[in-house]
Specification:
By secondary structure, the chain is an all-beta fold. It is about 0% helix and about 55% strand.
């Protein structure tokens, strides 16, 4: 069975957590293969990325510094995160309108 690759983006993320994808939770057994956060401000910022599994927030990274003009690869070195139906990915900054985010996902991994 062929796999489908998806991308989700959000820009100007600030101090309120933004769900990515914004429309709905992930499908059963999707795999996040990349998360890139770019600082779009003229000052250093701190970023957090977490998954809510319907009950708890599980941080992938919390208050990580991103320098001016810099980017952070949250998933690196071949790491992957498997998410299940109902899981939601959130991105948040300590500064208003400061992060552009790009997330790469393999949709519906076959058994």
């Amino acid at each position: 069975m062929a796999q489908e690759f998806r991308r989700y983006t959000a820009n100007n993320i600030g101090t309120s957590a933004v769900a990515i994808p914004t429309a709905a939770a992930f499908n059963s057994y999707d795999t996040i293969i990349g998360i890139s956060l770019a600082n779009i401000t003229a000052s250093p910022i701190n970023a957090s990325v977490y998954i809510n599994d319907g009950t708890d927030d599980i941080y992938l990274i919390k208050d990580a510094p991103i320098p001016t003009g810099g980017a952070l690869q949250v998933i690196d070195g071949g790491a992957k995160f498997v998410v299940q139906s109902g899981d939601r990915l959130y991105v948040q900054s300590d500064t208003a309108a400061s992060i552009d985010c790009f997330v790469s996902v393999v949709d519906n991994i076959s058994a």
